Amino acid sequence: MKNVRAKHPNFVYLSLFLFLFAAFYIHGQSFQYPYIGVQLEKHNDKWFVAGIEPGGKAEEIGIAPGDELIALDGKRLTDWQHSKIIDMKQVKTYTFLHHGTEIQGKVNQRDFFKQLFAIGVESILVGIGSFTYFRKPESHMIRKFFKMNIVLAFIILTIYATELMIANVILAACSIWIPYLMLDMFLQLIFTKVRPVVQNLFTCAKVVLAVFTLFTSLTITIGRIPDWIRDITLIQFMLAIGAILILGRRKWSHFDRIRKNYLLILVTGISLSFLPFLFLYAIPNLVGLKYILAPEYALIGLIPFSSTIMYILIKQRMIDMQLYISRLYIHTLFVAGLFFVYLCSITFKWSPLIYIFFLFAYTGSYQWVLKWANNKVNSRKQWLEKEKLKLSIQLAEKKNNRDLIVMLVEMIQEVIDVEGICVIWSDGVQQHAYCAGMFVELEEKLLMEDCSELVLRQKYNFSEVLKIGETNYLCLGHKSNNTFFSAEELQFLEKIHMEVFRLLRNAQLLSNMQKVYMSSKIQYGDNTKEAANPNNEMNYLLLEAQESERIQTSYFLHDQILQNLIFLSRDLEELYDSKVINKQKVKLWLHCVYDSQNEIRLLCDRLHPHIVDKTDLKEALQWLIRSTKERAELEIELQYRLSSDLVLQPLVKTNVFRIIRELLTNAVKHANASKVTLSVWNSGRVLQCRVQDDGTGFDVTELSQKNSDQRHFGLVSIHHQVNYLGGSMNIHSSIGAGVEVHICVPVMEEHSHVG
Fold first, then answer.
1. How many CA atoms lie within 13 A of 468 on its CB side?
2. At CB < 8 A and 24+ separation, what contacts does 731-734 make?
3. Domains of the chain, residue spans
4. Domain 398-530 bears CATH identifier 3.30.450.40
5. Spatial distance between the Cα atoms of 259 and 267, rounded to a whole number of angstroms
6. Residue closest to 747 by CA, chosen among 725, 722, 721
7. Rounded Cα distance, 724 and 288, in Å
8. Residues whose CB falls within 8 Å of the CB of residue 158, separated by 6 or more in sequence, listed in order
9. C-alpha distance from residue 354 to each of 40, 152, 334, 673 (Å)
10. pLDDT tens for each residue of 3-44
């Protein structure tokens, strides 16, 4: 595939130039001459206030309809032309007669800050649009987002403009088109395919909006904006938001998880952004009430709305909004309900007692529902904290056992001068070893072998092999002076042998009691359903259902969506070769299509790696290593010693592959590692895997800390998955010393019913 270069279209630079030119001119005029915001009419050679515009100086100083305008810039009105009085632009001071009292207005510090505020909002909107565009200039969706941001910035630009003719034309045109741009963005962002009927409707809407814009512009040039045009634009805006909410709700069940998250974030952004504008300005304006919040402040919500769209387009990575959306809905409904109660109290003229009763009842209901939603979210957080606690307890237990073994070995070395000592023990699933002295290098080798007393005596240079229980051994090297053990030394070793046996037996007993306790919590209906029991069939059925869902989603994307994109790319290639349309546009389409193909392939591999179905675990890991090296500069060494006669059930193989992939991803993204060693072997019927990197490492004790956000959530998830497979997991790490993760999964008959 050829590399398709994307050039910045001229319309982007032209749009930025026009906006900057308009902004410099309008703000330059507005800094000198304030926006007065009055509508005047002439009676008997006198000028009276016919209406007050929101956000102007007239509203600020208390001018009311019916007041008389008597002077401009200190001059009587007879010295001014008729057109100058009507426009009231390029006027610095003005005097009105209000109930027999002269009221004078002029430019002050507040006007200066208003202009700075507007400039700040405009800069943020244009900055967001430009940043998003230059990050992905080849995307058609991004260009639409850029246009929408420019339109929003133009709306803010006109709020305090003194050049009323230009400002009103810009405001009217932008207000008419912004609902269309929002709906178009919504359809392109949420729906993968738009029906031809909807496309035809949008084409017709373009024509109608163009005619309406032309009519409104002509009306403004003749006189002031009629109130019915303003009402239509507000209703149009409200209908667009309603259409987004209704369409999203009706099509919810047809969306995949990613699209659902897109929709939830978009709806959340719309709710938080436009709720103040709708309830505090638009609705009161439509029903004939005085607005509660001036439009310039109500439109601050344009910034979070634009930021929400940018987050979806640029990040392409969602938090799980379903955890938080219920509370956002509750807050939104509460604010809307308060406004509704306020309107009812005014319309029906409630007494204060009735108003207070409804207010307290509504607030109480809000608090009760909010508590329910918080409990729902907290249950997820509690589950995560419990999983972290379980993992930290298991790691602390393993570390404590190893520390005790190290202490006993050091005690033996202080009493008996031997060349080296090895202790081999098992916790029922995972085999452990600790070696000191000349046998230090044997530790890793002993972990990967089936150790028996005969093998240990024949294969290694041990002077004494003391069996502890069934699978545990205390192995000693020769004495440094090449003499035999004395009677006192043998008696001491017998005592140490019994201590080690007692220590390992108690550790195994404690581990078994924990498993029985967790199993009983499930069996007797405890609320903590996440307990791990290796022999519980429901755990495996749960994993099987999750895996089945992943496979279905993966094959759906691979066989349908990807094929459609490939077919579309071929058509675009033919169009490009035929030179029927603009080559640059075709190149951009091809670039987007090819990117989509690659992203979908990666998504398919992430949901369910198809190579695991077609090959064994070794070839799948080799493919994983190659693909990881293509994405990151990382040296990966594979040590694969899995017995060829060991047959892995599909569920076990797939989950082990996914766990290893997650650990490699952690090494690339979080550990800043340069080398990773991946070891896979089996001890009898137990599959063992170790992933070791030379990265930054972390403090393992952090796993037991509460309220640590989402840190190490991947490790907690892996531990939960290994537990459900009946295995165990161990982590060795410290800051600056890399991370070593060791997992063990039994490959026994209990997995056979899951395959």
1. 24
2. 731/395, 731/700, 731/703, 732/700, 733/697, 733/698, 733/699, 733/700, 734/697, 734/698, 734/699, 734/700
3. 35-106, 112-315, 321-394, 398-530, 537-605, 617-746
4. yes
5. 12
6. 725
7. 63
8. 26, 167, 168, 170, 171, 174
9. 42, 42, 18, 67
10. 444 445 678 888 889 999 988 888 888 777 777 777 778 887
Q: Residue 669 gets which letter from DSSP?
A: H
Query: 434 exposed, middle or buried (CB, 10 Å; 0-12, 13-18, 19+)?
Result: buried
Query: In CATH, which of 1.10.730.10, 2.30.42.10, 2.60.120.650, 2.40.128.30 is domain 35-106?
Result: 2.30.42.10
Q: Provide the 8-state DSSP code for 703.
A: G
User: Which superfamily does CATH assign the domain made up of 112-315 to?
Assistant: Rhodopsin 7-helix transmembrane proteins (1.20.1070.10)
Q: Which residues contact 350 (CB under 8 A, 6 or more apart)?
A: 344, 358
User: What contacts 193, CB < 8 A, 6 or more positions away?
Assistant: none
Token reading at 417: 């001068």
Integer Cα distance of 212 and 207 in angstroms: 9
Helix (H), strand (E) at residue 186: helix 164-190
Strand partners, 679: 639, 690
- DSSP assignment of 403-429: HHHHHHHHHHHHHS-BSEEEEEEE-SS
Tokens of 702: 């952090």
Strands (E), 111-161: none
Helix, strand, or coil (residue 42) = strand
Q: Can you name the residues that pair with 104 across neighbouring β-strands?
A: 95
Euclidean distance between CA atoms 617 and 322, whole angstroms: 35
Residue 742: which H helix or E strand, with range?
strand 739-746
Give the residue-averaged pLDDT of 669-691. Answer: 84
**Residue 637 DSSP class:** E
Task: Say which DSSP state 78 is in.
Answer: G
Q: CB under 8 Å to 112, separation ≥6 — which residues?
A: 31
705 φ, ψ (degrees, to nearest 5): -80, 140
- CATH 3.30.565.10 at 617-746, yes or no: yes
* SS3 category, 463: coil
The tens digit of pLDDT for each residue in 375-417 reads 776 776 676 677 777 777 777 777 877 888 888 888 888 888 8
| Cα–Cα distance list, 38 to 42, 161, 421 (Å) | 13, 13, 95
d(CA 701, CA 395) in angstroms, rounded, equals 9
Reported confidence tier of residue 531, pLDDT bands at 50, 70, 90? very low
**Total residues found in the chain within this entry:** 755
Rounded distance, CA 442 to CA 455, Å? 14
DSSP β-ladder status, 420-426 and 101-106: unpaired
